[in-house]
Design a protein that fits this description.
576 residues; 17 strands; Beta-Lactamase; 51% helix; flat; five-stranded antiparallel β-sheet; Heat Shock Protein 90; alpha+beta
């Protein structure tokens, strides 16, 4: 029982520390660390061996490269290839061409004849080759292939493998012209097999014989010491590093190097079958030991965790009962004897459930009282259908009695009432708002007669613009109130629409005496104002529905009052 009263955090810490102590320390510290250190040490040794071999190979290729740089820029090659009197395609004229050939032959023999790893050296022009070794045996297709590879090098030497032979190719450009025009090609057949073999001879005292694979800059296979190089050996390294792989039934430790002055990359395959078997056995034994330790810890921790989970299950059961509204069953799962965090959670939940139950009951009673109040309020309201029926009766009676004015007023009033009662949209098209304004104006004309003149000049193309309902009617009503009723001469009210930059500008203006300055100030600062409520309402609706930039502006023009509504144009992103 004392164990049950331990705080929740130490319980979970005990579980996880037990698992982590035996599994992580045993598995990671003894397996990963040891194996990693062994592989790192093996990589350092093979990397050192590989770097020594690379240095030897690169040194021999550098000797070839230095000699080639001297040859292609020397006067002999430059003079011969730039001589316009020599035709290398037909090898004529015979005597000058013979002299040129002997000069080239002596030059190549003098420089490459003493390099043991150069099998042949040729200068190629117009699909023909001149030189030493197998230079004359070079086919036109091979010359064209080598010329194309050399052009990709951008003036730098390129190593290219073709037909099992490795060629060092370099473009010969005119050194006496500013355009660096290509005038020929230097092609050397390099014995890479011999270079690699000689570089490994100094390591023959090793108790293992590594295999080397060399790749060109573009990923082509330049050399492999494997007798049968399958596709699995053609994985070009992207960076320095190592990996362990199994190829053709043998285990290899592979070390990669990419730091070549000629753009080549190297892979050294080191066979270590016996070591790999020992490592696999050690890994297996370590894994089995780790599994046994984890099983023991799992059995030990399951009893401890199950006691904790049991109380959480009780709490989940009470939550489900609470969600279903079965509050009366919660007392069956009370847990007052526990003193740890789980017991505190259960007691806190019980208290919360009691508080919520009490609030639900109070809210239920409140809702009943509100519904009764709403019912009484509805009973005291006038039924809109009853009002429309009365208007229709008046309209029918007026038409029967040939009272056309009363009939028109009744119809217009019915349309306005329907519009105000049944229009639930927050924004309506301008064309619908204009219809309501026309109906309202027609009623007012029956009252004021010739004293009132209203001109509606809104183009039909703006009919799709959206506007808060009754906004334009309120502006027209405001003009009648402040203009017509305060003047003796006829009042002219203009309602129009036009463009204002990227927005649409609606305006209502009159020729009245204008609005006094105090009223205008109250419109700008509506706090506590009891006048201009309709205009303030329009401004607030515009701000809420369309944003702060769309607003209502009212000002005196000196010839009356003008009210302007700034709205988005039809099709603007605001409506999407």
């Amino acid at each position: 029982m004392k164990l049950l009263n331990i705080r929740l955090k130490p319980k979970f810490m005990l579980v996880f520390c037990s698992l982590m102590l035996f599994s992580v320390v045993t598995v990671l510290a003894t397996s990963v660390y040891v194996f990693r250190q062994y592989e790192e040490e093996l990589y350092r040794n093979t990397s050192q061996f590989l770097n020594m071999s690379i240095d030897s190979i690169e040194q021999e290729l550098s000797a070839v490269d230095k000699t080639s740089a001297y040859v292609v820029t020397g006067d002999v090659v430059q003079d011969i290839l730039r001589d316009p009197g020599l035709d290398f395609s037909t090898r004529e004229p015979v005597y000058p061409f013979g002299r040129a050939y002997l000069s080239l032959n002596d030059l190549l023999l003098n420089h490459y004849g003493r390099l043991p790893y150069v099998l042949s050296a040729a200068v190629c022009v117009n699909g023909k080759s001149l030189g030493i070794g197998d230079a004359y045996a070079m086919e036109a297709a091979l010359i064209e292939e080598l010329t194309l590879e050399a052009s990709k090098g951008g003036g730098r030497p390129v190593l290219h493998e073709s037909g099992g032979r490795l060629f060092y190719v370099r473009s010969i450009v005119s050194m006496r012209e500013m355009n660096m025009r290509p005038i020929g090609l230097l092609a050397l057949q390099v014995d890479l097999q011999r270079i690699v073999s000689d570089s490994l001879k100094s390591r023959e005292n090793l108790n293992y014989q590594p295999e080397i694979v060399i790749f060109s800059k573009n990923g082509g296979l330049l050399f492999t010491s494997f007798t049968e190089a399958g596709e699995e050996f053609r994985v070009q390294p992207a960076e320095n590093g190592y990996r362990v792989c199994r190829l053709e039934g043998r285990d290899y430790f592979v070390s990669y190097a990419t730091h070549s002055a000629f753009g080549m990359s190297y892979a050294m395959y080191l066979p270590f079958d016996s070591v790999a078997r020992s490592l696999r056995l050690l890994r297996t034994m370590t894994f089995v030991a780790a599994v046994l330790v984890m099983l023991v810890n799992t059995l030990f921790c399951s009893k401890l965790v199950s006691q904790i989970i049991q109380q959480f299950n009780v709490l989940v059961t009470k939550m489900r009962l609470f969600q279903a509204g079965r509050y009366e069953e919660l007392d069956r799962y009370r847990s007052d004897n526990r003193k740890d965090e789980v017991g505190y959670l259960n007691r806190s939940f019980d208290k919360m459930a009691g508080d919520v139950k009490r609030l639900v009951e109070e809210n239920y009673l409140t809702k009943i009282a509100v519904q009764e109040a709403q019912l009484k309020s509805l009973q005291n309201q006038i039924d809109p259908h009853f009002l429309f029926n009365i208007l229709q009766t008046i309209n029918w009676k007026a038409k029967t009695g040939k009272q056309e004015e009363i009939s028109h007023i009744t119809e217009a009033l019915g349309k306005i009432l329907r519009y105000t009662l049944y229009k639930k949209e927050t924004l309506v098209p301008l064309r619908e708002e204009l219809e309501i304004v026309e109906g309202y104006v027609s009623i007012q004309k029956y009252r004021y007669g010739e004293r009132l003149s209203v001109l509606i000049e809104a183009p039909k193309k703006w009919g799709g613009a959206m506007i808060p309902p009754m906004a334009l009617q309120n502006l027209a009503e405001n003009s009648i109130k402040h203009a017509l009723e305060n003047m003796l001469e006829p009042c002219v009210i203009r309602i129009g629409a036009g463009e204002s930059g990227d927005e649409l500008l609606l305006f209502v203006e009159d020729n009245g005496p204008g609005i006094d300055e105090d009223t205008l100030k109250k419109l700008e600062n509506p706090a506590g104002a009891d006048e201009g409520i309709g205009l303030i309402n329009i401004r607030k609706r515009l701000s809420l529905l369309l944003g702060e930039r769309y607003t209502l502006r009212v000002y005196n023009t000196g010839r009356g009052t003008r009210a302007e509504l700034l709205l988005p144009k039809p099709g603007d992103e605001k409506w999407r």
